[in-house]
Amino acid sequence: MPQTVSHSYENEVTSERVRRHGKELWDHARARGATINCPEARILRSFSLAEVAEILSVSGSYLRQLSIDGLGPPPELGTAGRRSYTLRQINELRSYLASARPTEALKFSPRRRDGEKLQIISVGYGPAGTTTALYLAQGLALQGFRVLAIDLDARGSLSKMFGYFSRFHPPLYNGSMYAAMRYDDDRASMRDVIQPTHFDGLDLVPGTIELGLFEEESSQRYHGEGLRYPDPSMRMVSAIEEVEGDYDVVVIGGAPVGGFLGASAFEAATGVLVTVRPQLTDIVSTAMFLHILSHDVSLIEKSGRSVNYDFTKFLVTRHDPRDVPEQEAAALLRDSLGDDLLNASVWESNAIGKAWLQERSLYELSAGAVGRSAYEQAMETLNSTNAEVMDLICEVWGRPPIYVSQTSRSTTAGKTKSRLRRLSK
């Protein structure tokens, strides 16, 4: 028998019916125990004494003696007395060392000081853009920066890497950047949409399908009310200003090309990092993206607001240095971009791919999980890239560069140089 339609629903229009179905599904999911406002429970692994020594740029024997003397946070003791530290303990070590060795305080505690402005880095359109945003945000947190990652991808690609939107943890309603930028009375505080992650010092604004609503609503206002194009983009600027004092660096990932949401990301940014694969088709795509970015920025400038990035840098990613055409394409990029192309590049890596399939980063895994050789090679290129970006931040803040030199002194950096020499022969 055909199902009887309730009398109360007979006169509802299509939008009302769709809205009702959405609410019913939402309520039923919650009634059955779906957790709406927290990620999959994750605990970041502890780091060995050797790893902590490399992260802090001190010797392992020095850290071991601190532990013996009862100075700094007590490490975890494993088999055969092996010492390890959680990221929270590493940050406690940073505070102790900054106090005990004040001449090196900036090295151990890089958080911005009075007068140093918040750095907002938008990772622009390009291959491995989400991966780059992930490793940059986590790498900064491992080095002691207070970081906010903002996911502007409606599919939540970056958010999934932090345990959000798993099978038992669906997207949070009104919990993306859209909630802090929307135009109606349901607009939320920026603090209400920020979620914690399993990395101490790193928070996240998840990306959800709701982000598409911002594009629609902004377009309606632009065409229907005659508002100027940059009006929507200022909403992200205002939202981030609410929490400016809580962070040192904001990393924006997943910004769509063109449109109001993309323009918002580049209006808010103080620096832009564009990823490009050294292949001609990808280089052409990058050129097209730069044309769109130029258009968006010009509209903002025409409204009377200047756009002065502290840096616009390009990163070669997914690079196979053994491939001759890619070597030629990389040389083309260097000729065209000069010093705006980072010296480091991220190599094509099975280790990064394997970690991604597990919705983890290499920082979360041990070398054995993906193969030690592949792990070390990938980490070398990732850490070298992050070091360059961190030195850019130091330059903006008027500090001397330290991170590239630290990386070049490490054993793993020496291995990278050795490999590069072999490949060039």
From TrEMBL:
A Pfam family the protein falls into: AAA_31
SUPFAM superfamilies: P-loop containing nucleoside triphosphate hydrolases
Signal peptide boundaries: none
Source organism, top-level taxon: Bacteria
AAA domain span: 126-281
InterPro entries: AAA_dom (IPR025669), DNA_Partitioning_ATPase (IPR050678), P-loop_NTPase (IPR027417), Plasmid_partition_RepA (IPR017818)
Transmembrane intervals: none
Protein name per its UniProtKB record: Plasmid partitioning protein RepA
Organism of this sequence: Rhizobium meliloti
Protein's gene: repA
